[in-house]
Design the sequence.
């Protein structure tokens, strides 16, 4: 997605991002989840979706704060978070984040990750140097140069290599090493144009403009800055638009060219819509407030989850389902999807308890829970409703009219084909009757319909799937017979 943005394909990037938002982060690992959330936050910011960007960033930041972190993914996540802090005006914290990401990447032993984090740190120092007073500017450029040159000794991945070249060219221009800065800038532009990498083209032009200006050629500098500003606008990089626009305004004043100053002002104002100090401070405070709110929500949720989980199977219980179902059902409505409810009942479960004993009955319930987890997706809600009855609530695409039926049949077959020897069921082979319903996205309605279908499955012989039938609705049943007498 960021590749589309950097090549100026904003509409395509928006469409891809909309599709991505409908899919929750798949990994249950805390750092991986944080990484996905922060990546989405950067994408939202670059697409101009500021409130959503802050929401996603706060959630990802909270995940990272929940405990110790290490490794490549942690380093990348911290680095991306630093970028976001920079664009909302928290430059000091952003620099700390960039330094921390370098430490994490160095500890991970992964040279590609370290090179990427060094590029972020060096690029951030370049931007600080551009805005710093002349007395401190050289120190920032010098530190940036050190990090970027180290990064170039490590990297093999083409995109990071281009970014390091462009950032190093900027640092060298700031240090007055114009010949090498120009050489690297031209190389950055050539490599970036070959692959449609807009950021690299923009930075290369910006560096060449700085070199021409220092060499006493403001007219050529103006031409290059105009191209750089257009490139920054195309990829919607507000930080670059701001820096290039300010340089363009200064060159316009040097040339006594009011038209150029007006053009520069347009770019600066466009960038400043999200980056003036007042707005930046407000966004930074909103991020802090949201981060605190998310943390409090997590603490409250942890307490609720303890009360909403079945201790025998580890699944959610009835309370847990009633708490979680509205979220899924609201998402069903918002995304025009279909809700399915599957009600699973263990056939003749009383026989297991009576013949094999309650420990065997508990083992059967735990195995049923395991099978449900295997046959359902991460986003599906699975719960032990009561006794030997389980519920699955899921959402499916509107054109997938048999999704719930297919899941139900997989569950029934998995129970029927399970090796129950380890459960010590005294030769009994548990099966399951399953009722399925789809309709109005309301838990009570779906449960009533699925319960009626389940009753029909029991009445028609058990070990089968029955679906709530309406005119035109799908229905199916298994042909298998119960594994013990009725």
Sequence:
């Amino acid at each position: 997605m960021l590749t589309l943005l950097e090549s100026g394909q904003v509409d395509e990037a928006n469409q891809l991002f909309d599709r991505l938002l409908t899919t929750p982060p798949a990994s249950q690992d805390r750092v991986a989840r944080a990484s996905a959330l922060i990546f989405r936050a950067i994408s939202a910011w670059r697409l101009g979706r500021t409130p959503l960007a802050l929401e996603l960033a706060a959630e990802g930041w909270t995940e990272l704060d929940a405990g110790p972190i290490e490794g490549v993914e942690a380093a990348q996540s911290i680095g991306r978070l630093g970028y976001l802090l920079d664009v909302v005006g928290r430059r000091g914290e952003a620099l700390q984040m960039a330094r921390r990401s370098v430490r994490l990447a160095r500890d991970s032993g992964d040279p590609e990750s370290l090179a990427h984090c060094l590029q972020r740190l060096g690029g951030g120092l370049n931007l600080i140097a551009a805005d710093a007073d002349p007395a401190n500017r050289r120190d920032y450029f010098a530190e940036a140069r050190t990090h970027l040159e180290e990064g170039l000794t490590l990297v093999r991945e083409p995109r990071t290599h281009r970014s390091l070249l462009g950032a190093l060219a900027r640092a060298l221009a700031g240090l007055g090493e114009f010949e090498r800065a120009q050489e690297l800038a031209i190389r950055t532009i050539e490599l970036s144009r070959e692959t449609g990498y807009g950021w690299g083209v923009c930075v290369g032009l910006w560096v060449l403009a700085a070199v021409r200006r220092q060499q006493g050629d403001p007219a050529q500098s103006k031409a290059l800055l105009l191209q750089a500003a257009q490139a920054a606008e195309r990829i919607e990089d507000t930080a670059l638009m701001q820096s290039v626009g300010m340089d363009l305004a200064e060159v316009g004043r040097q040339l006594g060219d009011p038209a150029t100053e007006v053009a520069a002002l347009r770019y600066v104002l466009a960038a400043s819509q999200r980056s003036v100090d007042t707005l930046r401070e407000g966004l930074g405070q909103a991020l802090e407030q949201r981060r605190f709110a998310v943390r409090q929500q997590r603490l409250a949720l942890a307490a609720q989850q303890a009360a909403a989980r079945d201790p025998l199977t580890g699944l959610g219980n009835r309370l847990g389902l009633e708490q979680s179902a509205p979220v899924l059902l609201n998402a069903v409505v918002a995304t025009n999807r279909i809700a399915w409810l599957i009600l699973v009942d263990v056939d003749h479960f009383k026989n297991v308890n009576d013949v094999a004993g309650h420990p065997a009955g508990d083992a059967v319930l735990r195995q049923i829970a395991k099978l449900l987890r295997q046959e359902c997706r991460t986003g599906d809600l699975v719960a032990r409703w009561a006794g030997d009855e389980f519920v699955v609530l899921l959402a499916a695409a509107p054109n997938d009219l048999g999704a719930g039926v297919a899941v139900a049949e997989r569950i029934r077959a998995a129970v029927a084909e399970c090796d129950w020897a380890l459960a010590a069921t005294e030769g009994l082979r548990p099966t399951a009757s399953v009722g399925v319903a789809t309709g109005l996205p309301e838990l009570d309605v779906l449960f009533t319909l699925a319960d009626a279908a389940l009753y029909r499955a029991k009445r028609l012989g058990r070990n089968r799937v029955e679906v709530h039938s309406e005119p035109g609705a799908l229905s199916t049943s298994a042909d298998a017979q119960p594994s013990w007498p009725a």
Remarks:
- The beta strands are 338-346, 381-386, 389-396, 432-438, 465-467.
